[in-house]
């Protein structure tokens, strides 16, 4: 499943490794009240999934893991920080918590538990290897242009499993060829199925933009937009001015029930990637996101370029790197 990008530039072959030293992720949380019945912990974990980390806290406190709130899942092969919530009555007990791969680095209080999606985004610091001085300049130029024009908001290779085995399971389940009893696994596979349709739709829109709009994402009549408050709307005219000002973004369909569909020209493309018989709830996802806070530090003697940036929640750092390199990555190619 090839991902295409807005500029078809020369391919760059820098490397990166998802490990604890070279791939750092920090969750950008919401504004917590500083008071309330829930304890908010800022936690650093190393080479652990979010679920593994939560399981360690649940085991230590002898509680059900479902009583621990979190906003999003973070990479295993990285050093990551994120926020979790636990009832405040466990605050004293947590002072004795120790784990070789988990560190509590801050705490506050809030009025309710953290729920999935309760974050603004994530910031990333990643080392790129095998970068010449000339390539470092090319990478910076491309990154700055993506910041201005936007990044196609594909689901990254991580979404689909190693060798896309999760995607094949999802297709088999939807086709009725595979029966899944576990409700969480079933929902996960449905989300994989929806994600594939979204990526295929976005690829077509990107190729259309490359051919018809000089490498900037082309808006179409009937697009469904999202504003800065997360509200969806379908205006009578294309929102060129507000899109360039990053006040609104066009969205793509995650097929299912009870969701806005595009209209007019936008719908002609969207309907190719819409399974209207899927009963699960649908949603819409930003077609384009805008990376921010770009910083680059080139270590000339070692051919290493350190790049840091932030992305909105649900967006993939590896997709940003793919857009810069103009090539696709796969899980088996990343160490």
UniProtKB/TrEMBL annotation:
The keyword DNA-binding does not apply. PROSITE patterns: TRUD (PS50984), UPF0024 (PS01268). Residues 150-307 form the TRUD domain. Belongs to the pseudouridine synthase TruD family. GO terms for biological process: tRNA pseudouridine synthesis. It is an enzyme of class 5 (isomerase). It catalyses: uridine(13) in tRNA = pseudouridine(13) in tRNA. The active site is at residue 75. Responsible for synthesis of pseudouridine from uracil-13 in transfer RNAs. One of its GO terms (cellular component) is cytosol. SUPFAM superfamilies: Pseudouridine synthase (SSF55120). The gene is truD. HAMAP family: TruD. Keywords: Isomerase, tRNA processing. GO terms for molecular function: RNA binding; tRNA pseudouridine(13) synthase activity. It holds the Pfam family TruD. It comes from Sulfurimonas marina. Gene3D superfamilies: TruD, catalytic domain, TruD, insertion domain. Its EC number is 5.4.99.27. This is tRNA pseudouridine synthase D.
């Amino acid at each position: 499943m090839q991902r295409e990008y807005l500029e078809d530039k020369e391919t760059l072959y820098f490397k990166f490794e998802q490990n604890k030293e070279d791939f750092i992720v920090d969750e950008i949380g919401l504004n917590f009240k500083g008071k309330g019945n829930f304890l908010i912990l800022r936690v650093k974990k190393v080479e652990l999934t979010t679920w593994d980390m939560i399981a360690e806290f649940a085991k230590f406190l002898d509680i059900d893991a479902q009583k621990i709130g979190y906003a999003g899942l973070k990479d295993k092969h990285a050093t990551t920080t994120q926020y979790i919530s636990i009832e405040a009555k466990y605050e004293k007990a947590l002072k004795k918590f120790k784990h070789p791969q988990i560190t509590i680095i801050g705490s506050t209080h809030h009025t309710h538990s953290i729920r999935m999606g309760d974050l603004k985004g994530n910031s990333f610091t990643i080392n790129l290897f095998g970068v010449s001085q000339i390539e470092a300049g090319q990478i910076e130029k491309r990154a700055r242009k993506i910041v201005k024009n936007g990044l196609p908001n594909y689901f990254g290779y991580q979404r689909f499993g190693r060798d896309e085995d999760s995607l094949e399971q999802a297709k088999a389940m939807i086709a009725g060829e595979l029966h899944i009893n576990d409700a969480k696994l079933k929902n996960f596979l449905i989300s994989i199925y929806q994600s594939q349709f979204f990526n295929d739709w976005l690829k077509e829109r990107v190729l259309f933009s490359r051919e018809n709009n000089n490498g900037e994402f082309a808006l179409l009549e009937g697009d469904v937009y999202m504003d800065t408050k997360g509200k969806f709307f379908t205006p009578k005219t294309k929102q060129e001015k507000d899109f360039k000002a990053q006040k609104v973004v066009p969205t793509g369909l995650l097929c299912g029930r009870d969701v806005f569909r595009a209209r007019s020209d936008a719908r002609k493309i969207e309907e190719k990637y819409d399974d209207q018989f899927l009963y699960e709830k649908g949603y819409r996802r930003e077609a384009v996101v805008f990376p921010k806070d770009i910083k680059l530090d080139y270590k000339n003697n070692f051919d290493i370029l350190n790049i840091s940036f932030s992305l909105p929640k649900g967006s993939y750092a590896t997709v940003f790197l793919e857009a810069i390199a103009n090539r696709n990555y796969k899980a088996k190619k990343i160490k």
